[in-house]
Write a structure and sequence with these properties.
Blueprint lengths: L10 H10 L6 H9 L5 H34 L6 H37 L6 H6 L1 H20 L4 H9 L7 H14 L3 E9 L19 E9 L3 H14 L4 E5 L3 E2 L4 H11 L3 E6 L12 E4 L2 E4 L6 E3 L7 E5 L1 H5 L13 H11 L3 E9 L1 E3 L6 E2 L5
Helix pairs in contact: 3-4, 6-7
């Protein structure tokens, strides 16, 4: 059977079409799916330079291969038919390499232009310093993709986040469990947490007389032996693992009235996207309130008037936090700094994420000095 010949066509136009399409990765793909697939400016810069170096080497190799092929083609003996075929094959190789050079040049020129537009050229040291942020954002994104696709974070991404010191939270599981209970049972779950310096071997008097709102299941949790910010971070982690709907914090030197949780839950249900708390005084003769408000552009302590107020800082003495807060606000939720207590730190994050912080001054707690036993409380005159 004879070989079929390529039908005659306008080969000039066809070869030009071959050249036009040469560019393995388009500018759009290079910019959006290669360089900008990274999460930090430093790593985007590094990726651009890496791709640029590869394109540069490919271009030089293609040019040398082209030169070599042309030399080899010139040395072929064409006095025989076999030699003529070898030369035609080599000519095809030359044309293929010429097209590869066009594509490599286009990639190189685009990447070079992108590199020049970076406002800063980073050093190796600067790139190293940005690695933690890059890997953290990458693993957090992959973990969220796992949740969206499968409802679980893969073992690999969990381990990567753990190595970075990040706690993995089953956000999708929690949301589904809460939704399921609401639709099927009409119940809610509450974790009542008290942080103490030592384990509360003899119980927790601060919460013993509290009434639990109707339709609410609760678990009492004593978190002990941790620094205060670590304790509250651990409380939030425990609440998420237990798949509760609300986190209640009561300090061991704060004694809420019996109906505190009933009233605060009612306030919470009337105010979506809020956290709520009771009022209590500082352990001082002045009996200034612990919650902080902003008045006339200044921070002031909240006074008692039996009304509900939006506050700047919500203290942890007797407060209720919807579990969704800890889904939306990044970890760590609580930290103690030179200028901020753990509750001020969390209040700042909460307000930045669109949460309201409310205090009902009609729900008033006693504040007790742990050493002397002195009781500080507001009494109606």
């Amino acid at each position: 059977m004879k070989n079929k010949k390529i039908p005659k066509r306008d080969l000039t136009k066809l070869q030009q079409a071959f050249i036009e399409i040469q560019m393995p990765r388009t500018p759009f793909a290079l910019e959006n799916f290669v360089v900008n697939s990274k999460f930090t400016d430093q790593q985007r810069y590094a990726q651009c330079v890496l791709e640029l170096s590869i394109a540069y080497d490919n271009l030089r190799m293609a040019n040398l291969s082209l030169e070599k092929a042309k030399i080899q083609m010139a040395d072929i003996d064409t006095t025989t038919r076999l030699g003529q075929i070898d030369k035609e094959i080599k000519q095809i190789e030359v044309e293929q390499t010429e097209r590869a050079v066009v594509g490599a040049m286009r990639e190189f020129e685009f990447l070079y232009d992108m590199w020049e537009k970076f406002p800063k050229k980073y050093t190796r040291e600067e790139l190293n310093l940005a690695q933690q942020e890059e890997y953290t954002k990458m693993l957090e994104t992959q973990a969220q993709h796992d949740l969206n696709a499968h409802g679980r974070i893969s073992v690999g991404n969990q381990e990567g986040l753990r190595q970075l010191g990040k706690v993995v939270y089953p956000q999708l599981d929690v949301a589904r469990e809460v939704e399921k209970r609401f639709l099927e049972e009409g119940k809610s779950r509450m974790l009542i947490a008290v942080a103490t310096e030592k384990k509360a071997e003899n119980g927790l008097p601060c919460v013993e007389n509290l009434s639990i709102p109707n339709g609410t299941e609760f678990k009492l949790f004593n978190c002990w032996g941790r620094k205060i910010d670590e304790a509250y971070n651990h409380i939030a982690e425990t609440a998420i693992e237990d798949k509760v709907d609300y986190v209640v914090t009561v300090e061991d030197d704060t004694f809420p009235p019996q109906d505190a949780l009933v009233k605060l839950m009612d306030l919470l249900r009337k105010n979506p996207k809020s956290a709520v708390g009771a009022w209590y005084p500082k352990r001082e003769k002045s009996l200034e309130g612990v919650p902080i408000v902003i008045k006339d552009g200044k921070r002031q302590y909240l006074e008692v008037d039996n009304q509900v107020h939006e506050v700047y800082t919500l203290p942890m003495g007797c407060s209720i936090f919807p579990i969704e807060m800890f889904m939306e606000i990044p970890y760590p939720w609580f930290a103690t700094t030179a200028n901020l207590s753990q509750d001020s730190f969390f209040s700042q994050l909460a307000r930045e994420h669109g949460w309201k912080l409310l205090v009902d001054t009609s729900v008033r707690c006693k504040h007790i000095d742990r050493k002397t036993g002195e009781v500080f409380e507001y009494k109606e005159e």
